[in-house]
Amino acid sequence: MASSTNMLPDKQFQCTICQQAFTDPVTTPCGHNFCQACIQNVWDSSEVCQCPACNKSFHTRPEISINIAFKELADTFRKIIACSSHLAAGSESKPLACRNCLICDRSSTTLLLILYKMCLL
After folding, report:
1. How far is CA 59 from CA 29, 51, 52, 89, in A?
2. Residue 52 shares a structural domain with residue 78
3. In the 8-state DSSP scheme, what is residue 62?
4. Which candidate, 7, 53, 78, 85, has a CA 20 to 30 Å from the CA of 1?
5. Mean of the per-residue pLDDT values for the chain?
6. 78 vs 64: CA distance, rounded Å
7. Does residue 58 sit in the same domain as residue 76?
8. Whole-number Å distance between alpha carbons of 44 and 67
9. What pLDDT digit, counting tens, does each position of 91-121 carry?
10. What pTM did the predictor assign?
11. RING-type domain: from which residue to which, for each copy (predicted)?
């Protein structure tokens, strides 16, 4: 039986630079998402400013800001991972992150409801 963490759509919430769940996600002009610190570090250490995902070059360094809606989804994903990992370890009690998921059943957001149901696995 697959663990609940394997069933989560982790690639959508994972920075391709650090391979972790997004922290302060930003979107490049070409539409790719990265952690703000990750993309800034890549651009700071390179003479050419380009997207690490598609190699599109930018003449000037793009202005980037945190994608608030995507940050909220990534934060929810991070909580679900914490809950799923805790429950997979066999603990009877739910951690704070999992208890917080209980508010999702009042949400009309489909993704949050799906993540909430996965948290209960």
Report:
1. 12, 12, 15, 49
2. no
3. P
4. 78
5. 74
6. 22
7. no
8. 21
9. 555 544 444 444 444 443 445 555 555 555 5
10. 0.64
11. 15-55
